## 1
Amino acid sequence: MKSKDKIKTTAQVLLLPQDSILPNPNQPRKRFDYDELEGLAQSIRQNGILQPVTVRRRTDGKNVKFELVAGERRLRAARLVGLTKIPAIEIDADSKSSAVLSLIENLQRRDLDFFEEAEAIERLIDEYSMSQEEVAKKLGRAQSTLSNKLRLLRLPEEMRYEIEKAGLTERHARALLSLENDVQRERALGIITDRHLNVQESERLIEQMLNRKKKQNPIKGIRDIRVFINTLNHAVEAIRRAGIDADAAKSETEEYVEYTVRIPKIEQIRISLPGDG
């Protein structure tokens, strides 16, 4: 860089009292690992905060406060260390922009699990009236990716907790969504966690459950099996009217209706001819 070139200043780092920084109500990350925070705190003890947090100004009467936009982990770790002042960069952002920026920062750092990410996307759509297309553009994601993320929220909150506690992946969660109802999903999840099934094994299990369900269900379009039983009965009656002593029997199991017709072999059949006594 030539000496005559001027360096433009875009923002100044402020040293803010840590108690003047308010939490971000739209913070997408809800769960923080204490060991990770302690590790970050140890780094801050040695090196200080290398990257300032981001805040926006909030005025409450005569008091000036700052709401955190990005840097929740750094702020928490700094408080563990006992820092009284936090380096911060102030930006001009409304609530909507703050929520988007907070989500983007967490996504870029891969700080969110897949359920937290889905919940944050849903919040942007519901609370700030953003379309899926708009959110996708802001996050640099395909709209189909967002749709798949939002589908994860169809799982009940208790089930999401079990999935996270077991350390299962997003593909595990998506596979569970293939099942018809939460009863089946709970059953599958119990087997997956008890047997520690990986994604491929879990998908095979769910496919088997779906195939078993199809076998148990009647064929679509067949409203009443009695229609076909009556057809078979008429066929047997027709055989008997032709002079053949046919025998029919019907039985049912849990999976099948069995209909058996016995017809004597042709050499055993004697057809009455005119003139016979």
## 2
Amino acid sequence: MDSKIINQYLLLNQKYFPEGKLPFLKDKLSKLNENQFSVLYSIQLKDPVILLIISVFLGNFGIDRFMLNDTASGILKLLTCGGFGLWTIIDWFLIVEKTKEYNLNKIMAII
């Protein structure tokens, strides 16, 4: 795959992935053919900032966890009202990285 196209893709989508994993992702993307690479454009990635906002306002109900397909934690968070508020506050600091890891795992499943 052309490195110019890969660099453009990573430049446009770098906020969706962990910063330390970008070189690893670049290496994996360079091994794709054009058809596989075109599939990446159809994948909808979760925006970490949007999930942070959802976590702040709806974190007690576990909506942030449900959006990351972490159903068990979402149900537990819902039943305990966000771990009595403590779990919700902790998630405010962790949700951005969890979202970026979720996006990376989603891409890696396609690759």
## 3
Amino acid sequence: MKVNDRRKAIVNLLSASKDPVAGNELSKQFGVSRQIIVQDITVLKGLGYEIFSTHHGYVLQKSPLVERVFKLKHTTEQTEDVLNSIVDLGGTIIDEFVWHKVYGKISATLNIFSRLHVKQFLEGVRTGKSTELMNITGGYHYLTVRAESEEILDNIGLMLKTKNYIALGD
């Protein structure tokens, strides 16, 4: 994993965690030394992330990143293009959720921020390990996308609209 990808993954992990995440846990998860994690945290702090070190681990107080939820409708065959297009424009797909008429909101954490993650996700779906969440609601689903600026989210929204992936109605 490249340095920037690892740092992005650290931010995503800290953002998603309700509890402090120990440096040793990050070290094991990313296959690097504890010293590398300390360096990564220092760089992330320099980029504006409010990361605090506690005796239980690292906590992300407030992220400078922005998020937007996109309501989409597309086919299974188009999923790869949707995900790759979002990450290519600088977005991270945080989660996917659907509104089921009986069960209510059903969601899944994804944290997809690279083409490698898109490939791994699709392999999991295509090998029969699971099915795409959108399949239970006729293709309608929501993606929460995080990026470094509103401009990036605007570009992602424009791309999704241009490719006719934005859902226009129920």
